[in-house]
Amino acid sequence: MSRFERTSEFEKELRRLSAKFRSLFKDLERFEKVLTVNHTGIGKNFTIIYRQEGLDIVKARVACKSLRARSLRCIYAYYKDSQCFTYIELYHKGEKENEDRERIKRWLKERRL
After folding, report:
1. Domain ranges of the chain
2. Whole-angstrom distance, CA of residue 35 vs CA of residue 49
3. Rounded distance, CA 96 to CA 108, Å?
């Protein structure tokens, strides 16, 4: 059984973006269903940006009905042993060009990975 967790920074971004994009919570539920089938997603919309034994950090496009396009990006970690997903970052491609690499490094450092 897969488990999904969210960092506090992700929670703030989710609240802010859901005010703009009303379908975001439902979109995230659909996204989680895809992840439970294949943890690194399907197709070119998923890119592994960091890999270590037992852990993958993935950058993925999240389809958002409110946007009518795939303009949201989600960074998440997947622990293979525990089948646990941790959401690290969520952003709109129009507001921010790339993921926050420093945030990912901090997250990894906090877990001593």
Report:
1. 3-110
2. 16
3. 22
Paired strand residues for 90: 74
Q: What percent of the chain is predicted at pLDDT more than 70?
A: 97
Q: Which of 24, 31, 27, 26 is nearest to 45 (CA)?
A: 31
- Which tens digit of pLDDT belongs to each residue from 5-60? 999 999 999 999 999 999 999 999 999 999 999 998 888 899 999 999 999 999 99
98 secondary structure, DSSP code: S
Judging by DSSP bridges, how do beta strands 69-79 and 3-6 pair with one another?
Answer: unpaired
So what CATH class is 3-110? alpha beta
DSSP lists the bridge partners of residue 60 as 46, 74
- CB-based contacts of 64: which residues, under 8 Å, 6+ apart? 21, 23, 24, 27, 70, 71, 72
Residue 109 backbone phi and psi in degrees, to 5: -65, -40
Q: Which residues pair with 4 in a beta bridge?
A: 85
Alpha helices in 5-61 (DSSP H): 8-20, 24-37
